[in-house]
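*** Fold description ***
***
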Amino acid sequence: MFVTPNLCNDGHDATCVAPNVEGTKNTAGKNIGGLAAADLWLKHWMPMIFNSPAYKSGKMLVVLTFDESGFVDSRACEKEDQADCQSPTGPNVSNPGFSPILGLFNLQTPPTKNFVYSGGGQVGAVLFNKKLIKPGTINTTGSYNHYSALRSYEDLLGITKGGNDGFGHLGFAALPNMKPFGTDVFNRR
């Protein structure tokens, strides 16, 4: 399952047209958004997820992550280091990191060549599962991308047939050198 907050709860907009998950307003009577609303969303939903039978039994992996780190992040994968970071560009994106919407508002300049922008940048993630992960452990040694994550989820679900590689992996997750999460993440296996 994929759960994501709406635009009033995802940390993007400081104030929102609609109410946040708790319906709180600022002193000007505007609906609170931004990081305060994202925090409220987590406080509202995460206890329900953690108290679910699927999570308590250890059958559910919860991944809490974000979609970008900011406008500029030199640590993101660029064409020159694609082999190192294992993050190929998608078939419909020739300029990762450039947002046509931000371009409309003059917050980014349209690039004159490919790979001018670094992409979404490095983001952190917090993973929860009592059977796979020791609580409180921190991993700063591994470097994974969303294709690594997809491959890991396919493996955890026991998908072993079909996909682009014949072993259950789809798209770029099927690349032969794409590594799933290792023992640096799943440290109780």
